[in-house]
Design brief:
Blueprint: E1 5-9, H1 13-24, E2 28-32, H2 36-54, H3 67-71, E3 74-77, E4 88-91, H4 97-110, E5 116-119, H5 126-130, E6 139-143, E7 153-158, H6 164-176, E8 180-185, H7 192-208, H8 214-225, H9 231-238, H10 240-254, H11 263-270
Parallel strand pairs: 1-2, 1-4, 2-3, 4-5, 5-6, 7-8
Antiparallel strand pairs: 6-7
Helix pairs in contact: 1-2, 7-9, 7-10
């Protein structure tokens, strides 16, 4: 299947990172969001990210095009109909099942029958997402990691009905993006988040119980295990609201109390302490 125009639904942190990687790979990108101000923010943050990357002309992440040329490949829109001619659509909207369940039937109506849909979800079953469409064989999971432009590997999830052709198309797209694919079976949380969310939640419990300060928890993981980031730093990067929604989704899917979110996590989300995107989480990011 030819891949030239790629749609990205959702212009948040993951959406803009995905759009940037696609545009840098020479693909036409249609970036959709319900809010014009989010699109404006995405454009500016993408411009700054490209500018910083462009300062370094060597290495695996070096840009092959000028930032303005990459940005020019992106169409910024609040109109879902703009996705009509896309060959492939990556969905990155908020990790709330009711929002995704409303979006996919709309995409199904707008896009051509052969268009592949890829869900960049943290925990929701790809098979369930596919059931909201009339093309379950053309739905696949692409779990990009944050920050998308700097991560070289993507978790690819095969739903119950995902066809071999769809799986290959997803791999072909990742190859164009210079990313490797690791294919796993469909299960809530897949491999990465089924493990990561438990780790983050337990790290929150450690901080809540006063066993160690957040920086001490993270220091142990970085110094003793060689992790580039500790679990609480990772939580701040992902967004504590996303962590909470993921844990709630895992608990609902498995009915297992081991996924019960730490009350401190819920309290921080209620207080608006979401991590990097709000300026404060387990660490302070305000200048």
């Amino acid at each position: 299947m030819a891949l030239q125009k790629i749609g990205v639904a959702g212009a948040g942190v993951m959406g803009r990172g995905t759009a940037q990687s696609l545009a840098a790979a020479g693909l036409e990108v249609v970036l959709l969001d319900a809010r014009a101000d989010v699109l404006d923010q995405a454009r500016e943050e993408m411009r700054e990210a490209l500018r910083l990357t462009g300062l370094f002309k060597t290495g695996k992440n070096a840009l092959e095009k000028e930032p303005d040329e990459i940005l020019a490949a992106v169409v910024w829109t609040t109109r879902p109909e703009a996705l009509a001619e896309c060959d492939f659509v990556v969905e990155n909207i908020t990790e709330k099942e009711e929002l995704k369940a409303a979006l996919y039937p709309r995409l199904d109506e707008i896009c051509r029958p052969e268009t592949v849909f890829a869900a960049n979800t943290s925990v929701i079953s790809i098979t369930r997402i596919a059931s909201w469409t009339k093309r379950p064989d053309r739905v696949v999971g692409l779990h990009f990691m944050n920050p998308v432009p700097l991560k070289t590997t993507v978790e690819v999830i095969r739903g119950f009905h995902t066809s071999e052709e769809t799986l290959q198309t997803a791999k072909d797209l990742l190859k164009l993006m210079k990313k490797k694919a690791v294919v796993v079976k469909d299960s809530p949380g897949f491999v990465s988040n089924r493990v990561l969310m438990l780790t983050v939640n337990e790290a929150v419990w450690l901080a809540a119980d006063g066993v160690a300060e957040p920086f001490e928890v993270d220091r142990i993981f970085k110094s003793c295990f060689g992790h580039p980031m500790g679990p609480l730093e990772t939580a701040d990067l992902i967004g504590l609201d996303t962590i909470l929604l993921s844990l709630e989704g895992l608990m609902k899917a498995f009915g297992d109390p081991k996924f019960r979110p730490c009350p401190l996590l819920r309290k921080m989300v209620d207080a608006g302490l979401l991590g990097r995107k709000s300026g404060r989480g387990f660490y302070d990011y305000q200048v």
